[in-house]
Amino acid sequence: MSEKTKQNATLSLPTVITYGFASMFTSTIVGYMLGYYQMPFFTEVLGLSTEASASIMTMRQVVGLFTMTIAGIIIDAFPLRSGKLRGWCLIGSIMYMPLSILLLYKVNMNVTAYMAFHLVVFFFQQIAYSLWWSSG
């Protein structure tokens, strides 16, 4: 491999730092917040029963089974001008943050409607995460 090829293959320090901070804030902090505090949020803030909360958490895992595949289909079906993956990283991260916040938004509706609302938002949030993660 020539010296010029090696130089082009290396990321600059500001790029590495930017990717590190973006990963830390979008994935790690929000992911832990949603993972650890979701059940107490359902039971204590929203006042849902433990059974309803457990049902939501179980259905979230079932929804999560399909999101990575759907994100892959989206990436393959809609290549962007900036490259096959590069633009989807930006689109996924921009979609991910507001949808993650919306998962912790208190809405006044009955339990069944909230379960449906939460699962739809979770589905799109996981699609956004998968777009970001798959292309990163």
Describe this structure in words.
- With 136 residues, the protein is mainly α.
- It is built from five helices and no strands.
- The protein is globular and about 50 Å long.
- The model has no long low-confidence stretch (mean pLDDT 82).
Task: Jot down its keywords.
5 helices, mainly alpha, single chain, 0% strand, 136 residues
Number of helices: 5
Total strand count, please? Answer: 0
Using the CA coordinates, give the radius of gyration.
Answer: 18 Å
Main beta sheet strand tally, sense and closure: none
- Class by helix and strand content? mainly alpha
Roughly how much helix do the residues carry, as a percent range? over 70%
Percent strand: under 5%
What integer is the average pLDDT? 82
Output the helix-strand order.
HHHHH
Note the topology.
Elements: H1 3-9, H2 13-45, H3 50-77, H4 86-103, H5 111-135
Helix pairs in contact: 3-5, 4-5
Care to give the gist of this entry?
The chain has helices at residues 3-9, 13-45, 50-77, 86-103, 111-135. With 136 residues, it is an all-alpha fold.
